[in-house]
Design goal:
It is built from ten helices and twelve strands. By secondary structure, it is α/β, with parallel strands linked by helices.
């Protein structure tokens, strides 16, 4: 065994799909997943903040936050990271000023609430419809995230950026922001789908990676079960074990309608090929 790490699951992957969505906060039954995660010997769930019904999400209400604290204490499964898919729909760099301002307000509130439950990572997706497509997008993003970055730093929280930028432009973006609280969410499947070289990525910003999403995709295509796509898992595991990585490792693996059985197969496969085990929650 190579070692013990903080290993968890993207919210909803152990449950049936919420309203048919591939990835979404399972409104109304999210609590069920904590016991299941414990059964799988996982110690983390990466919570999701969707754009839809955002203000009703447990992350955004006093009652919801109290519920999260209660269930994490009872189950031993923690919420250290939050996938803020809200900003896929309403990007911080939106050209619509009102949208951008509202998103900054949402992020500020999310940071306060994340801190109150002990979360240390808020993943900001800049992919697909929220991709940083040109210099104007990057300029607006840098301008609009700076206040949030200062807030995050004061709370000990990372704003982990998930982008589809090649290694050099991504590194240049990080250097321009020049803020220790702005880090990298490394998504193994997205990297493979885009044809990025993991060695070049790790050389460019490996020391800034604070959150890892484990999934598999084919080059130029979608998600497939772990081990059936183009991710070079040997290089990923080598990085994790040689870099003294201590952040969350979140399985965002391929899912079907129900989630639980196919997740178990992929988790067993990942543990076998990696030797990585979850740190005991007791």
């Amino acid at each position: 065994m190579l070692g013990q790490f903080h290993i968890g699951v993207m919210q909803g992957r152990l449950l049936s799909k919420y309203k048919g969505h591939y990835q979404a906060h399972p409104k109304g039954y999210w609590q069920e997943e904590f016991g299941l995660a414990n059964e799988f010997s996982l110690n983390l769930i990466e919570f999701i903040l969707d754009f839809s019904d955002a203000l009703e999400n447990p992350l955004m209400t006093p009652e919801g936050l109290a519920g999260i604290r209660t269930i994490t204490q009872a189950s031993g499964v923690q919420v250290r990271s939050i996938c803020a898919d809200y900003f896929m729909v309403a990007p911080l760099h939106s050209s619509n000023q009102k949208t951008a301002e509202t998103s900054q307000e949402v992020l500020s509130e999310l940071l306060k609430n994340a801190s109150s439950i002990g979360a240390t990572e808020v993943v900001i997706p800049c992919v697909d419809q929220s991709s940083l497509k040109n210099d104007e997008d990057k300029t607006r993003f840098i301008r609009n995230i700076k206040n949030s970055a200062r807030e995050a730093e004061s709370m000990g929280i990372h704003l982990a950026l998930e982008t589809d930028l090649p290694p050099k432009p991504f590194m240049e973006l990080l250097d321009t922001l020049d803020c220790p609280s702005v880090t990298v969410n490394y998504d193994t499947g997205n990297s493979a789908s885009l044809g990025h070289n993991p060695e070049e990525e790790f050389e460019a910003y490996g020391n800034r990676i604070s959150d890892i999403h484990i999934k598999d995709r084919v080059l130029g295509g979608g998600s497939v079960p772990l081990g059936q796509g183009d991710v070079n898992f040997k290089k990923i595991i080598d990085f994790i074990t040689s870099s003294n990585f201590t952040g969350p490792i979140i399985l965002q693996a391929y899912r079907d309608e129900e989630g639980k059985a196919i997740f178990r197969k992929q988790l067993d496969w990942f543990r076998k090929i990696s030797g990585l085990q979850s740190i005991s929650s007791t």
